[in-house]
Amino acid sequence: MVEKLPMTAAGHLALEEELKQRQAVERPRIIEAIAEARSHGDLSENAEYHAAKEAQSHNEGRIAELEDKIARADIIDVSKLSGDTIKFGATVTLIDEDTEKKAVYQIVGESEADAKKGRISITSPLARALIGKKKGTSVEVVAPGGAKAYEIAKVDWK
């Protein structure tokens, strides 16, 4: 059984765009660089050739990874979700119980997580602590930086 990867439609689109870029732009550019470096003669001491071959290997590996993620995608339309219980796709407003600082996070798939943009992976310690909870509840999260307590101030579906 193939394990499905939950992701938002926006996360799926971003993966498809990166795949197209790597196949249509990066792959031909790297092939051109290899051909150019090959024309310089002796390949054993040709740094450009080895760098281009390494870039090709990295690009092809990423293409295979993207194709796998896209094939296993379980696209969840967050706009059709509702309720006051936190689950995948929820945008949660948290209040740090120590500092009173407010933070807003959307729970997304691993491949689209970006904490700086307020998107946390469903597998992160914070998201795992939040799943199944409701507004007004306090949660304690044991993260690499130590234990933190948050109050769930709001649950949105955007």
UniProtKB/TrEMBL annotation:
Domain Transcription elongation factor GreA/GreB C-terminal: from-to ranges: 83-155
SUPFAM superfamilies: FKBP-like, GreA transcript cleavage protein, N-terminal domain
GO biological process: DNA-templated transcription elongation; regulation of DNA-templated transcription elongation
KW Isomerase (keyword) present: no
Molecular-function annotations in GO: DNA binding; RNA polymerase binding; translation elongation factor activity
Residues of the Transcription elongation factor GreA/GreB N-terminal domain: 6-75
InterPro entries tied to this protein: GreA/GreB_C_sf, TF_GreA/GreB_CS, Tscrpt_elong_fac_GreA, Tscrpt_elong_fac_GreA/B, Tscrpt_elong_fac_GreA/B_C, Tscrpt_elong_fac_GreA/B_fam, Tscrpt_elong_fac_GreA/B_N, Tscrpt_elong_fac_GreA/B_N_sf
Keywords from the UniProt entry: DNA-binding, Elongation factor, Protein biosynthesis, Transcription, Transcription regulation
PROSITE patterns given in the database record: GREAB_1
Keyword set includes Transcription regulation: yes
Role played: Necessary for efficient RNA polymerase transcription elongation past template-encoded arresting sites. The arresting sites in DNA have the property of trapping a certain fraction of elongating RNA polymerases that pass through, resulting in locked ternary complexes. Cleavage of the nascent transcript by cleavage factors such as GreA or GreB allows the resumption of elongation from the new 3'terminus. GreA releases sequences of 2 to 3 nucleotides.
Database matches in HAMAP family: GreA_GreB
Family: Belongs to the GreA/GreB family.
Name used for this protein in its record: Transcription elongation factor GreA
Phylogenetic lineage: Bacteria, Pseudomonadati, Pseudomonadota, Alphaproteobacteria, Hyphomicrobiales
